[in-house]
Amino acid sequence: MAENAVKVLIVEDEARLARFIELELKHEGYDVEIAENGRIAIEKFYEYSPDIMLLDLMLPELNGIEVCRRIRKESEIPVIMITAKGETMDKIAGLDSGADDYITKPFVIEELLARMRAALRRTNAERSSSDSNILTLKNLTADISRRTVMFDDTEIELTKREFDLLVYLIKNKNIVITREQILNQVWGYDYFGETNIVDVYIRYLRTKIDDRFGVKFIHTIRGVGYFAKDEN
Ligand code: CA
Asked: How far apart are the CA of 58 and the centre of ligand 1, in A?
C-alpha cells in the first residue's frame, strides 16, 4: 500500500463489479478493500478505517441504508451509494440515511472517480475549517484563516502579535505556559528582548477582552506564566 493513499471500502455483493472497481481504483493510486455484504462492511469499517465508502444499496445481511446509518453514528467519512436503475425511492432513503452522493448502475468509471474526488474534497474542506481554523474559548471564537476574533457577535480588533498570542493561549487552554514558551512560540527563537514583553502583551489582551467584556479568560500563575481558562 502506498503511503498516504486514500483508503476506499467497496461494499458490493456482485463480485465482478467489485473487482472491476477495485482494479480501476488501484490503478488511480487508491488503497482498496472489498466487503461483499453489509455485515462484513461494518466489520471492515472498524478494522480498515476507510477514508471513503462506496456502498451498494441492495446487499445481503444488512442493506446499504442500514450500513450507512450505523457508520454515520461513528464517522463523517464520505459515503457514495451505488444504486441500480429504478431504485429511485431508495436513493432518497439513501441520502436520508446520511449518504453524501449516489451513482446509478451501470456507470462509467470516470463518473465514479469524479464523484469520489468531489466528496473527498468536501470532507477535507469541512475538516480543516472545523478542526484547525476555528478555535474557541467560551464566548471567544478565533478564525485562524481570516485572522479574526469574535466575542459572541462582537469583533475584537487585535494587532498581529496580540492575535498570535491569543491563539497560542487558546490552543493551550487550561494548561499553564511559561513566559519563555510564549516568547519562543509567539515571538520566535530569534527574540532576544525582555521577557516582560509577554506581560505587556498579556495586559493588552486583558484590556481588549477581559476588561471590555467583564470576563476572566487569562489567568496569571505568579512566577510561572499564564493560562487561558475554559471552565468557570
Ligand atoms: Ca447488490
From this structure: 4
Ligand 1 centroid vs 27 CA: distance in angstroms? 24
Q: State the CATH number of the domain containing residue 105.
A: 3.40.50.2300
Q: Full-prediction pTM beyond 0.85?
A: no
Per-residue pLDDT of 27-42, as tens digits, reads 999 999 999 999 999 9
pLDDT digits (tens, 9 = 90+) for 121-143: 887 766 665 556 888 888 899 98
Q: How close is the Cα of 13 to the center of ligand 1, in Å?
A: 5
Which residue segment(s) compose the domain that 187 sits in? Answer: 134-228
Q: Is 70 part of a structural domain of the chain? A: yes
In this structure, the answer to whether residues 159 and 117 fall within a common structural domain is no
Characterize 199-212 residue by residue with b for buried, 16 or more Cβ atoms within 10 angstroms of its Cβ, and e for exposed: eebbeebbebbeee
**Distance from residue 82's CA to the centre of ligand 1 (Å):** 9
In a domain, 149, yes or no: yes
* Cα–ligand 1 centroid distance for 204 (angstroms): 63
CB atoms within 10 A of CB 37: 18
* Ligand 1 center from residue 112 Cα (angstroms): 17
Distances in Å between the alpha carbon of 74 and those of 26, 49, 121?
26, 11, 20
